[in-house]
Design brief:
Number of strands: 9
CATH class: Alpha Beta
Largest sheet: 7 strands, parallel
Shape: globular
Helix content: 40-55%
Number of domains: 1
CATH topology: TIM Barrel
Distance between the termini: 24 Å
Radius of gyration: 19 Å
Strand content: 5-15%
Structural class: alpha/beta
Order of helices and strands: HHHHEHEEHHEHHHEHHEHEHEHEH
Length: 341
């Protein structure tokens, strides 16, 4: 069987066309998903294998993308660690008792019971049977810093005041928390790999709010430990973050096959900085998809021009997730257009 073009691109092999998939392609903008959302909340869908698998398959059928990403939530490992949380509509994750001291860090359970994620393994099993062989399945997790920010702030934040106060004011407690989250992330992603996912993406969505010095001191060692441990899975590893251009070389220094970049830096510039020994994924601004398709085409053309046309090791994606108000027709046409490049 011919290797799926997404997996080939992760290994920087030649492909017949540029592979494309979208972050948050499974949900939000799809009418089929919104219909399910009227009946079930997000965590129920994530933990019901038949529902999670169905949502994962929706964009493959509708959009013709070259990879599926598991429909789950980055907060699932935290639930396994004993965290009381809810996903609140129009807000996001809300933690009942934020983790802000040594005692609350000590109270976090280590992951170690595979049965706690039995629903995840069942979902992956269903998907490996249902997905076409040319469409591999991506598993994922939030990175320790991103998970820590939710735990400490208690809800989504743009200031990260409590997070930085713990980081600066109680570094021993910070490092203890990051180590626990690192161990949990390795366990959680290894479990996904054993269940059958064919690639892994680690989302460090909020690390870009740190300075280069703070990222290197307080976050990077844990990211490196995760990717080093995941090498044993023998599947492609993607490191994605937003606003990472300030410390991109450090961000890309982990042992991974693919670096994902957001829309704040040109792909060509980013690739020069991280080196051509790694594949790159990105990075159309999701808001562009709200425009007429001629505008979208121009932006896509600019991305390809910036890397000198079709290139081995380039995976087309957005700079972040699909926005809920994105016209479905634009996603369909975008996939077709990229495939023609």
């Amino acid at each position: 069987m011919t290797e799926p073009i997404f997996l080939a691109a992760c290994a920087r092999k030649p492909t017949a066309r540029t592979p494309v998939w979208y972050m948050r392609q499974a949900g939000r903008s799809l009418p089929e998903y919104r219909a399910l959302k009227e009946k079930y909340d997000v965590l129920t869908m994530c933990r019901t294998p038949e529902l999670s698998a169905e949502v994962t398959l929706m964009p493959v059928r509708r959009l013709g993308v070259d990879a599926a990403i598991l429909f789950a939530d980055i907060m699932l490992p935290l639930i396994g660690m004993g965290v009381d949380l809810k996903i609140v509509e129009a807000v996001g994750p809300v933690i009942a008792a934020p983790v802000r001291d040594e005692k609350s860090v000590d109270a976090l359970r280590a992951l170690g019971d595979a049965n706690a994620f039995d629903y995840l393994a069942k979902t992956i099993g269903i998907l490996r049977k249902e997905l076409p062989p040319e469409v591999p399945l991506i598993g994922f997790s939030g990175a320790p810093f991103t998970l820590a920010s939710y735990l400490i702030e208690g809800k989504p934040s743009r200031e990260f005041a409590e997070t930085k106060r713990l980081m600066y004011g109680a570094p021993e407690t910070w490092h203890a928390l990051m180590q626990k989250l690192t161990d949990a992330t390795v366990y959680y992603l290894t479990l996904q790999a054993k269940a059958g996912v064919q690639a892994i993406q680690v989302f460090d969505s909020w690390a870009g709010y740190l300075s280069k010095e703070d990222y290197v001191a307080f976050v990077l060692p844990y990211s490196r430990a995760i990717f080093a441990a995941l090498k044993a899975t023998n599947i492609p590893r993607i490191h994605f973050g937003t606003n990472t251009q300030v410390f991109l070389e450090d961000f890309a220094s982990v042992d991974c096959e693919v670096v994902g970049v957001d829309s704040r830096i040109a792909v060509g510039v980013a690739w020069q900085r991280i080196g051509k020994n790694k594949a790159i994924q990105g990075n159309l601004d999701p808001t562009v998809l709200l425009c007429d398709f001629e505008v979208i085409k121009k932006k896509v053309d600019d991305i390809f021009a910036g890397i000198g046309g079709k290139r081995d090791g380039f995976i087309f994606n957005l700079g972040h997730g699909v926005l809920p108000q994105t016209p479905l027709e634009n996603l369909i046409k975008l996939t077709e257009y990229v495939h023609g490049k």
